[in-house]
Amino acid sequence: MYSFKNFLDILTTPDNVPILLLIAMIVAYTWISFHKAFDNDKRLAQGRPVWEGEPHNQEKVHTWPHLLNIEFIVSIIAMAGLTLWSTFLNAPLEDPANNSVTPNPSKAPWYFLGLQEMLVYFDPWIAGVVLPGIIVVGLIAIPYIDTNPKGNGYYSWRDRRFAIGVFLFGWFLWMALIIEGTILRGPGWNFFMPGEYWDVHKQVALVNINFSELLNIDPKTFWLARELPAIIILGLYFTITPFLVAKFNKKFYEDLGLVRYGVTIMLLLLLVGLPVKMILRLTINLKYILVTPWFNI
Amino acid sequence: MANEITQGIETPAIKFRRESDVDPKEISRRKVLGFLGWGAFWTTMAASLAGTGKFMFPAVTYEPSPIFKAGLPKDYTAGVSTRFLSGKQVWIINDGTIIYALIAICTHLGCTPDWLLNENKFKCNCHGSGYYMSGVNFEGPTPRAMERAAISVGADGEIVIDKSKKFIYEKGEWDKPDSSIKAV
User: Considering only CB atoms, which chain A residues are within 8 Å of B145?
Assistant: First the structure.
């Protein structure tokens, strides 16, 4: 059942090679930026200028030839790399599309695998439209809600703990979903451990129930009455938490102001809510917390 | 006007030609450019007009009729028949007492689930939704049961399936007479 060869076969599928590069790049870039950030934090603690502010790093040079030379060489290397890649790894083309045959496993392109994984835990309207929309709008809103001038033009962890922490949480979450969708999801979108044989007939008990059923409420009850506990819990999550955070971290609230704080805390609660729902599904088989005739959460 | 920059440089006399000076048979630069310019303009106009006119003749591909014959009821022994899966995208299922036609579209996001005989269930490859043989969902993210198509026995004794009429479990429509026929 388990063998290293199974794992290697999945890793070296032409589809999955970008994911290997992705993992390497996540590690490399996180390490580089934190290495620089911690170095600067040490300098700031000692009262010295940051590395980017040292006189020898303040020297200005011309775009041509200093920058364009580098860009030219990088573009040649990239071109050579892509040529070799496309020569040795063939595009994974399949048969013409057929309505009645869905390949097993059916996987979206790697950059959509995070969305596909989200669709397991939420209904299509939430995971396919609402959450991606909020992610895009939230990313656009970052410059307007994060007006902390510190960290402009230099790496620093100490000056931007909240911003960097929240970003890394969301980013690692998204990357983890992509990596899971690529390497750990097999036929029937079942979960397979690394090295496990991708058995089409793997049996996993995925029987899951809604929150109202967990409370033994008759499913035939009018939906508003049936979902009342869920509405109260979700309502508390989105109203009490902002008040508590503002009360116990007054400085955070006062620095941002009412509107900016409201937007920030809502985006944060949604970001935290995503893995919370996933964990609830994986641990207590909770299907949906809230079931309405139009959408489910 | 001579200033310090143009001082000492002799300006050659430029002689502009009036239109009346031009021999009408001469192919002048102005004529060529005018021809090209207006030619490009009218070609664009004609092409967009033709493009608009094309909408008068829509490129419809006519789908096969949603109504089709599916053989005699006695052809279907107990179990799931995938005979009409490719082409018609329905399973014809005999559960021992009734025969019904289940439309093979997952109600989560529209993939075609697989019938897994050993596990006695339909399993969708895309996000892992699972259905009983009846079509009722029991696992994965799907919100509701798969839909059944209208099924009846024609005058010649053959099963007639009409995919354009759908029966939805959550609305209690699986009790309606056209949603199933008696198994033989």
Answer: none
> Of the candidates B87, B125, B140, which has its C-beta nearest A102's C-beta?
B125
Tens-place pLDDT, residues A107-142: 888 899 999 999 999 888 999 899 999 999 999 999
Structure tokens given for B113: 């689930």
Same domain for B119 and B39, yes or no, is no
Which residues of A fall within a CB distance of 8 Å from B143?
123, 296
Domain count, chain B: 2
Residues B49 and B110 in one domain: no
Phi, psi dihedrals of residue A158, rounded to the nearest 5°:
-60, -40
Subunit contact A105:B111, Cβ cutoff 8 A: no
In a domain, A46, yes or no: yes
Contacts of B118-123 with CB under 8 Å at 24 or more apart are B118/A201, B119/A201, B119/A203, B122/B146, B123/A188
Assess if residue A242 is contained within a domain: yes
Instruction: Kindly determine whether residue B140 and residue A116, on different chains, have CB atoms separated by under 8 Å.
Output: no
**Is B120 part of any domain?**
yes
Q: What is the pLDDT of residue A131?
A: 93
